[in-house]
């Protein structure tokens, strides 16, 4: 049923999450599987011109028969009408989703897999689980290394969207091969680890080719994980059926990848490309420090319209503006703090680069010293603010005066409203052209916001307010955060939004 093929011979027992749940599996009856077809059976879609990236994604969904499963339909409730969630993940995904879709498509995999970072990490490269899984695809260190992701002081490939996507798809194809090319079980194994699934199958004497995901008694997180991905896909397939408007995403690559060939400071890149530093960091989250790697990688991602500007600046850049390295010969009586102050760096940087555990120095030995124009304090880098910050609920005015370039969709996004509601309350068609100076009545939205209760009628439910976090809610009701997560089928990486109802007491 699945139009996909798996061509990776490497098999891993690890999981990005390294789950340890071990439960017995009941005998599974043979059931229709979502299996991979040979590549030559795939329908080529490369010649089709899509109006948007979402349209291209929908065209390659291949797990649709599973969308109607009751456990999937249960999960759609978390997405239906949750406009703020879709606005946020679309904003986060905008730079990188096209690349992920292209890679999934080129391998002939189910396009639902391109949505996995939304479920794994809410599409945040900064996401880190309690177990230590990191990045869009939530790789644990060992699994990441097994699939070629570099991790060192300068760079973490788990946080690099392009590198981690390649590794994640390799891993998923490996799981696809391992589990008789059954994609639902492969996705479950990605979450909990193939070892856990194989052990459960062996214990009950169920052969891999007989396994049925829906009958596997997996841990709660994994049991919800696959249905949640399918539910998200079903909403994206028909967003209007769930009162969702998807942000417009162009079906064109928005980024360019520029090989620098030398170590360069991110601040220098920002200056040459005429970008702010935060934008450069946001597009290059794999770099953990102020610069690219001293050896590899030394590639920089910039918006496509800045590629020529950056390349021109690099061609004209004085060699002294790159990061260079010097050796400092330690003298008798030297201390790390004195050397750092003398050479314009920090003791933390010297320790990390030279692999020093303490502050003891030996005269005659040498230290490696980075030279550059913008070497910050290492502690400041560790404590830098996340690239993506949660938006506050906007203040809705009684009326809005249309500006040049406005349309109903943009205005709706500005105030977290639905364009259909604005149109209906102003006697407009969705396709209506707005004129600068035209006044739109938004009083209906203000009234709806004012009348909305802060808590649900049931004392066992809590309606999330603006500014809430899971830990704050748990503290407010004297709960353990782990219990709150478990009762609501959430993980630490899940986002909560105003209006969302949470169970605050076990039923």
What is the name of the CATH class of the largest domain?
Mainly Alpha
The ordered string of helix (H) and strand (E) elements is HHHHHHHHHHEHHEHEHHEHEHHEHEHHE
Second rung of CATH, namely the architecture of the largest domain:
Orthogonal Bundle
The count of domains is 5
Query: Can you tell me the CATH topology of the largest domain?
Result: Lysozyme
Based on DSSP secondary structure assignment, what is the total number of beta strands?
8
Report the total helices: 21
Molecular shape: globular
Question: In which order are the strands of the major sheet placed?
Answer: 1-2
Portion in beta strands: 5-15%
**Span between termini:** 38 Å
> What is the helical fraction, as a range of percent?
25-40%
The biggest beta sheet is recorded as:
2 strands, antiparallel
Detailed description of the structure:
The chain contains 21 helices and eight strands. It is mainly alpha-helical and 507 residues long. The radius of gyration is 26 Å and the shape is globular. The relative contact order is 0.11. Mean pLDDT is 81; it is low at 7-13, 18-32, 37-45, 375-393 and 449-459.
């Amino acid at each position: 049923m699945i139009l996909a093929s798996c061509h990776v011979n490497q098999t891993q027992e690890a999981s990005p999450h390294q789950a340890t749940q071990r439960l017995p599996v009941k005998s599974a009856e043979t059931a229709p599987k979502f299996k991979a077809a040979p590549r030559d059976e795939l329908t080529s879609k490369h010649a089709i011109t899509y109006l948007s990236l979402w349209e291209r994604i929908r065209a390659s969904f291949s797990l649709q028969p599973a969308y109607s499963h009751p456990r999937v339909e249960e999960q759609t409730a978390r997405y239906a009408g949750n406009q703020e969630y879709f606005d946020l993940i679309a904003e986060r995904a905008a730079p990188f989703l096209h690349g992920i879709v292209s890679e999934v498509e080129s391998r002939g995999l189910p396009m639902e897999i391109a949505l996995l970072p939304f479920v794994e990490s809410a599409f945040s490269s900064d996401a880190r689980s309690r177990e230590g899984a990191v990045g869009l695809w939530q790789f644990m260190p060992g699994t990441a290394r097994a699939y070629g992701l570099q991790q060192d002081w300068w760079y973490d490939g788990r946080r690099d969207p392009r590198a981690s996507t390649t590794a994640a798809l390799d891993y998923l194809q490996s799981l696809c091969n391992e589990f008789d090319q059954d994609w639902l079980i492969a996705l479950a194994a990605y979450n909990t680890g193939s070892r856990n699934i194989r052990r459960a199958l062996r214990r009950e004497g169920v052969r891999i080719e007989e396994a049925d995901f829906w009958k596997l008694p997996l841990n709660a997180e994994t049991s919800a994980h696959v249905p949640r991905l399918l539910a998200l896909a079903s909403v994206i397939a028909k967003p209007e059926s769930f009162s969702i408007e998807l942000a417009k995403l162009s079906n064109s690559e928005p980024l360019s990848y520029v090989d620098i060939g030398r170590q360069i400071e991110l601040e220098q890149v920002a200056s040459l490309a005429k970008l702010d530093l935060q934008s450069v960091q946001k597009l290059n989250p794999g770099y953990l420090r102020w610069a690219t790697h001293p050896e590899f990688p030394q590639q920089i991602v910039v918006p496509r319209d800045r590629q020529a500007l950056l390349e021109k600046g690099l061609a004209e850049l004085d060699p002294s503006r790159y990061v260079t390295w010097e050796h400092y010969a330690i003298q008798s009586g030297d201390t790390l703090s004195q050397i750092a102050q003398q050479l314009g760096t920090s003791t933390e940087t010297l320790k990390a680069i030279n692999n020093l555990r303490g502050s003891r120095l030996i005269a005659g030995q040498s230290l490696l010293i980075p030279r550059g124009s913008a070497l910050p304090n290492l502690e400041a880098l560790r404590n830098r603010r996340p690239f993506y910050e949660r938006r506050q609920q906007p203040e809705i005015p009684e009326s809005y005066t249309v500006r040049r370039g406005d349309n109903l969709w943009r205005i709706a996004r500005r105030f977290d409203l639905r364009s259909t509601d604005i149109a209906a309350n102003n006697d407009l068609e969705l396709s209506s052209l707005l004129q600068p100076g035209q006044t739109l009545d938004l009083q209906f939205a203000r009234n709806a916001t004012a009348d909305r209760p802060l808590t649900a009628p049931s004392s066992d439910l809590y309606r999330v307010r603006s500014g809430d976090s899971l830990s704050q809610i748990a503290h407010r009701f004297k709960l353990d955060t782990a219990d709150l997560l478990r009762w609501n089928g959430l993980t630490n990486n899940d986002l909560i939004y105003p209006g969302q109802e949470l169970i605050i007491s076990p039923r």
